[in-house]
Design goal:
heterodimer; A: 430 residues; alpha+beta; 14 strands; B: 168 residues; alpha/beta; 31% helix
């Protein structure tokens, strides 16, 4: 009997701190465990007793990469509890802000974290030594996302301009014009990015995932929609907990999510894209086709191409929103505290992000529940490892370990915003 | 095209890095806040949280950069180390405390690979003792912050004035 254990004590090129353990026994993958820490659980406790108006600034601190996602799911849920509807230019501005986050987050993952896997580099620094012009393009593209965050959100990281009911200050039309010029350049750079990643060598691996993502009556899902799945689910965000549950697993501090009475499911770019190809702009659809993607993509190694298509869409959509923008009369819709429960679901760059809040009559938060995309995907990531790695067991240890890491990085897990050290180790047990 | 691609006017910066709410991690920002009161002539004072691409954007186009950060190398709290990163990379193990596995050491190497490292680039590292959320600076680090601010002011003043050609 031969047992081989692949351990990656600290995963590199993922957001935050995580570890990986794959056990191979007699030539077959016996188990695969992704160990993660999940800070949002603490935030649920921090929120208790605070006024609802503080929630956007508190939840923004959950993640330095996707603070807008946390803010948007929070304000949507609280507005739902208060009976407030945010529409028209205020909704458009929120969507614009969210586009900035998608551009920033996806571009970071594509260029700095994921592309080195396909090109045989240790990381972005080594990639930059050989291809400085490509890395410069990625950094400039990411900067276009930062520019949206600064202008609409008030600053690049942890935006301060978001409030329940809208914003503290809304931009003037003329302020958005320089942004449009930068975004036109970014849209071209995003199209070049799609062509660049489309040329990578992708392992031919597919899975019959249950995709779960928002679906909106007219828009590609970012800031709102119903929750849909490739198995026919179609529910309102308030029904999320009736259909999905989280369970404790021994090897991880994060909860594993699954469909009630069902199994693991996948959220994120592959799910969004495969359920909403028809909602992409014509330019983004054409870019996808040029990259060899069909209307459904079930090969997680191609997620880098799907992310690149979503960056094209985010630039395109941001330009559309800026062009159509009319300055709102007031920066926010007035809201009055009342007792109630509200639900919110938006599409973080990594996938569906669900929030629920129960408010007291005076507006204090009595209870908060946050279900982030990475905890929803954790079981699917482990299943990917179990299914895909078996075909690569003949590879040398180093190459096999790299395949394991790449398989995790396909889903851009945002493991935590914690301290991170890089340390790799393989153990043999025979 | 964005200015990170086209380059900006050449300038001098002092960059303080850290999380202001995590104990001694705030050391770098505390140093530059002391300088901000009466900044050396023509020198830009910048505070950042340490995200690599934002750091890179600050280094881009600078003729000289003085970076101050907290570190955890095993030395006593408050110990200060000086690294001339123009001569070689930072020891990554001591600067691994970034939020996303992509921090100061990586930003500097990325800048070097892209030809964007300022001609003069010095990193001062203050050894931290505690990094708990909400904690103030520990006494030895608070003392080191004051001393380093003065040392930095002297070092910048001793160099040719910003704006004078440094890189013939």
């Amino acid at each position: 009997m031969a047992v081989k254990t692949i351990k990656v004590d600290y995963l590199a090129r993922v957001e935050g701190e995580g570890a990986l353990k794959v056990v191979i026994r007699d030539g077959a993958v016996e188990s695969a465990e992704l160990r993660i820490f999940e800070p949002p659980r603490f935030f649920e406790a921090f929120l208790r007793g605070r006024d609802y108006s503080e929630a956007p600034d508190i939840v923004a601190r959950i993640c330095g990469i996707c603070p807008v996602a946390y803010q948007m799911s929070a304000v949507q849920a609280i507005e739902n509890a208060l009976g407030v509807a945010v529409t028209g230019p205020l909704r458009d501005l929120r969507r614009l802000l969210y586009c900035g986050e998608w551009i920033e987050s996806h571009t970071l993952h594509i260029y700095m974290l994921h592309a080195p896997d396909f090109l045989g580099y240790e990381g972005a620094i080594e990639l930059a030594r050989d291809h400085p012009e490509i890395v410069r393009r990625g950094l400039a593209l990411k900067k276009a996302g930062n520019a949206i965050m600064s202008l609409v959100g008030g600053r690049e990281i942890h935006p301060i301009n978001v409030r329940v009911g809208g914003f503290y200050r809304t931009p003037r039309r003329r302020e958005l014009q320089p942004l449009a010029e930068q975004l036109k350049w970014a849209r071209d750079a995003a199209l070049e990015t799609v062509r660049w990643v489309a040329g990578f060598d992708f392992p031919e691996r597919e899975r019959d995932y249950e995709f779960v993502a928002l679906r909106h009556e007219s828009d590609y899902p970012i800031d709102e929609g119903r929750i849909a799945s490739s198995c026919g689910l179609d529910i309102a965000p308030r029904q999320f907990e009736e259909y999905f549950e989280e369970a404790q697993v021994e090897h991880s501090t994060a909860l594993h999510a699954r469909r009630r009475g069902g199994g693991p499911y996948l959220v994120g770019p592959l799910a969004r894209y495969s359920l909403n190809f028809d909602r992409l702009s014509p330019l983004a659809q054409a870019a996808a086709r040029e990259a060899g993607l069909g209307p459904v993509c079930a090969n997680p190694y191609r997620s880098i191409a799907v992310r690149a298509v979503e960056v094209v869409y985010a630039c395109d959509e941001a330009l559309r929103l800026i062009d159509a923008y009319e300055e709102p009369e007031r920066p926010a819709v007035a809201a009055q505290p009342r007792a109630g429960v509200g639900h919110g679901a938006t599409e973080a760059p990594r996938g569906l992000l669900y929030h629920r809040y129960r408010l007291e009559a005076d507006g204090a938060i009595a209870e908060a529940r946050i279900v982030p995309p990475t905890s929803q995907n954790q079981a699917s990531i482990e299943e990917d490892l179990r299914r895909f790695i078996g075909g690569w067991l003949d590879l040398p240890d180093e190459a096999l370990r790299h395949r394991c890491e790449q398989t995790v990085r396909n889903h851009d897990p945002c493991i935590s915003c914690a301290t991170h050290f890089l340390q790799l180790e393989i153990d043999h047990a025979r | 095209m964005p200015d990170s691609v086209t380059g900006r006017r050449r300038r001098w910066i002092v960059l303080g890095i850290g999380n202001p709410d995590r104990g001694d991690d705030a050391a770098g920002r505390a140093v530059v806040r002391l300088l901000r009161g009466a900044p050396p002539d023509g020198v830009e004072i910048v505070e950042q949280d340490g995200e690599a691409t934002a750091l890179l954007a600050q280094l881009d186009g600078a003729a000289a950069a003085f970076v101050v950060d907290a570190c955890a190398s095993g030395a006593p709290a408050g110990a200060v180390q000086r690294f001339d990163v123009g001569r070689g990379p930072l020891p990554r193990a001591a600067f691994g405390l970034s939020t996303h596995g992509f921090g100061l050491a990586e930003a500097i190497e990325l800048a070097r690979a892209l030809g964007q490292l300022p001609q003069k680039c010095v990193v001062y590292a203050i050894e931290g003792g505690r990094f708990e959320a909400g904690a103030p600076l520990s006494p030895p680090v608070a003392a080191a912050v004051v001393a380093l601010a003065e040392q930095l002011r002297a070092e910048i003043g001793a160099d040719a004035r910003p704006g004078e050609e440094q890189h013939a």
